[in-house]
Structures are given as C-alpha cells and as structure tokens.
Amino acid sequence: MVVIFTVEQDGLSVLLIERAAPPCRGQWALPGGLLRPGESLQGAAGRKLADETGVSDVFLEQLYTFDRLGEGQADTVVTYFALVDIARTRLRAELEWQPPRHRVRELERLAFENERILAYAQERLRNKLEYTNVAYSLLPRRFTLTRMQRVYEAILGETLDKRNFRRRVVGLGIVRETGQTEKTGAHRPAMLYEFTSREPMIL
Amino acid sequence: MVVIFTVEQDGLSVLLIERAAPPCRGQWALPGGLLRPGESLQGAAGRKLADETGVSDVFLEQLYTFDRLGEGQADTVVTYFALVDIARTRLRAELEWQPPRHRVRELERLAFENERILAYAQERLRNKLEYTNVAYSLLPRRFTLTRMQRVYEAILGETLDKRNFRRRVVGLGIVRETGQTEKTGAHRPAMLYEFTSREPMIL
DNA sequence: CCAAAAGTGTTGCCGGTACACCCATGG
DNA sequence: CCATGGGTGTACCGGCAACACTTTTGG
C-alpha cells in the first residue's frame, strides 16, 4: 500500500481509490496491491506509484508494516509513502483517468482503518521535513522560496516566518540560488532556487 | 526476526543464534521464526523475545521490513528490535541454556546479510537514545547516574561529559531522584534515580 | 594515605523565534 | 495609485559543549 501525498492549492492532499469490489465496496482506500513474483517490496511500491501518477523519480520510502487492519483481515501490509509534485503527474497521466486526490484535512472514514496509516504517514512526513530535504519531490526543479514556504506550511499546518524560513533553508544548505529569476504576475522578479541534493540528506 | 540488544561490561551486545540447519548451517544469525496462525506481528516478536531471554516487559519496536536477504531468499522479513537488561534475563533463563551474546564491535559476517539489519538497528537505537527514554529497558528500576551514563556511552560509542549528561537527563525530566542512596565499594554513597516513564516518550 | 567514584557551576556559542518595513511591478 | 508579493536585520532566549576541583569511603 502506498500513501501518495501532493500539495495542491496550499493544502496537503492524498491520493485515494474508490473500491470497486467487496469488501468495503464504494469506500475510499489507499492504493495497494499484491506483490508480483520476483518483485521487491520497493519495486512493487514504485510500480504502484507509477500506475497511479505516471511518475517514478520521486521520494518513496517504507513507512511501516501493519497487520490486522480491519476486522476479518489477517494479512500483513507493508506500506510505503511517496511525495509527488502535481505538475509532474500531468506529463504522463494527462489523457488517462486522473485518480482523485483528497484534502487530508477533510477526510472522513476510510476502508480498512486506512486512517491509521494516513495519520502515521503524516506524522513521519512532518518529522522528516524538519531535518531532511524530502520536499524536493513536491516542487519543480526551480522554484521561489515563497512557493517552497507554502509547501512547508501546508504540511506542517501552521504559518511560518518568512525571514526565519529563508535563513534556515539557505543557511543550512538545503537549497541554493540558481542565479535565474522569474517574473510572475504583479510583482518584481523573484530569485529561483533549487535543492542542493535529491537524496534524503540528513543534516 | 528480532534484534535483541543488551549492554554488558560497558559494551553493546546482541543476541545471536547459531544456525543448526541449512541453509547457512553453523553461521550466526539473528533469532527469528514464522508467524503462527492468528498471531500478530508484535505478538510474534514478543514471543520470540520471551523464548530467548525470558523477559517480556521491555522496549520492543518494529524496525523495518526487509526482502531479498541473501541470495536465493525471496521472502520478506519483518524485523523488530528490543532492549533488555541482562540482570533481568537471569530470572527466568537461569537454569536453561543461555543464548550467547556477542559484542557488536567484534562481529564478522553473519548469515543472510544480517549485518545490514544489525547496522540499521544500531543506528535507530542511537537516534532514539537522543530524544526518548528507551534506555529504561537496559537498566534496573533504580540506578546511579554513572551507571546510566555507561549505558549511553556504550551505545553511542563515545565518552560523555558527566555534568552535561546529568543536567540533561535530570533537567529534561527523563529521570528523577528516588531519595534513596546506594553504597557500593570504595566510594561515598550514590543517589539512586529512576525513569519518570516507561513509555517511548518523545521530548 | 591512596585509589575510586560522586558530586557540583560558569562561560561561550549557536540555532530558533519574534518582529516591521521598503521596493518593484502590473493593472 | 494601489494591490501584490519579494526581499531584508536585529535582539532575546534556551540548549549544548567545554572545562577542574572537592568529598567520601574502603582497603
């Protein structure tokens, strides 16, 4: 099972599938599936992610292994979580059916106690945001610091101070200036930044 | 599979089993086994832990789910790690066979790439030590701060400053004074401390 | 009297947080 | 001319690391 997060319109969203078959038919659930013969766990998670979003070069990490989700379910479920920039998903999934994303804040009950998984994934994401550069996967290659700050705020669920935020991400070497600027709408051009690394770097 | 850590003579040790059957007969490996019908993952890990050490009320947490350990092995392995105070293991395992513990520092190759698991467990342990009170499981109920410091030093692999260590664990409320003292050997009596909580408290 | 361990304060540095104003542009 | 968003500096506070000497006791 894979928890696929995106940030959309300043809110954190998760990709859900409406179950077509029993049990829990008609309810929303996280996308999942069975391991194919000869496939690794990470490989299966990546495949599932590519199936749903069309992207593959993103942050994807094992989350936890659950068992006894729901009532009768005795199976164990290895979960992963991924971070995807919405803009990139369109590239391959544009013409096909777009799986619906849902605001995390507005969710009700999901099938198979998937809320537990989602809550855990959210917590891990919040934590990782503080010491790593995982957000690279939620932004285009070049971006303005304000845009980046929006992503952080969406995930943490609180507003941040602009100057402190800039000092931190630049000062600690998470991102670097590209030298290029962008002119967007009714304001002066903004410096574009990029991540110094795409690895889950630890500070 | 369970990684069972203890601290012995100022060194970090891990409990290993010598494989009696092929494959990898005669090599050292982490204790493990199959899930019994109707058993939860956490339950199975706890059972395995009790089998080997006789203790049950200790820190035990899921570590990671591996797959493709070793060459031909296609199975996936859910690993846990546990922390055990040596003194407590004797209570139940005294008369029976004592599974051998090995200094982590002195290990060579293990069966099934178990080194990877062990290395990962060590890293997690080091990290958790910094923000949680997991060490409660490696010490008797009451202990001197010097003894506690030895445990921390054994795990972190470096010596710590006595005054800074005391300030931190007392000041941040990880441990509290009991009011009782202990007179041990050729020195003045030492205050005994205890953990304020046995939960994996996060600061 | 000596070895062994317990106990105790101060200082400097750094990272985190709080806080307010000016500037360039497009409409 | 005004609305929008970009950009910038300072002051306080708390945690963290470095650092050395005195006391008690058992042998």
Explain what you see.
2 copies of one chain form a homodimer. Chain A is of the alpha+beta class and 203 residues long. Chain A folds into 2 domains: 2-131, Nucleoside Triphosphate Pyrophosphohydrolase, CATH 3.90.79; 134-195, Arc Repressor Mutant, subunit A, CATH 1.10.10.10. The first copy, chain A, has 5 helices and 9 strands; from the N terminus they run E-E-E-E-H-E-E-H-E-H-H-H-E-E. Chain A has helices at 41-53, 86-93, 114-131, 145-156, 162-171; strands spanning 2-8, 11-15, 17-18, 28-29, 59-67, 76-83, 101-103, 175-182, 190-195. In chain A, a hairpin with an 8-residue loop joins strand 5 (59-67) and strand 6. The first copy, chain A, starts with a strand and ends in an 8-residue tail after the last strand.
Q: What attributes characterize this protein structure?
A:
two-stranded antiparallel ribbon; 2 domains; alpha+beta; five-stranded mixed β-sheet; homodimer; elongated; 203 residues; DNA-binding; 30% helix; Nucleoside Triphosphate Pyrophosphohydrolase; Arc Repressor Mutant, subunit A
Produce a short descriptive summary.
Two copies of one chain form a homodimer. Chain A is an alpha+beta fold and 203 residues long. Chain A has five helices and nine strands, in the order ββββαββαβαααββ.
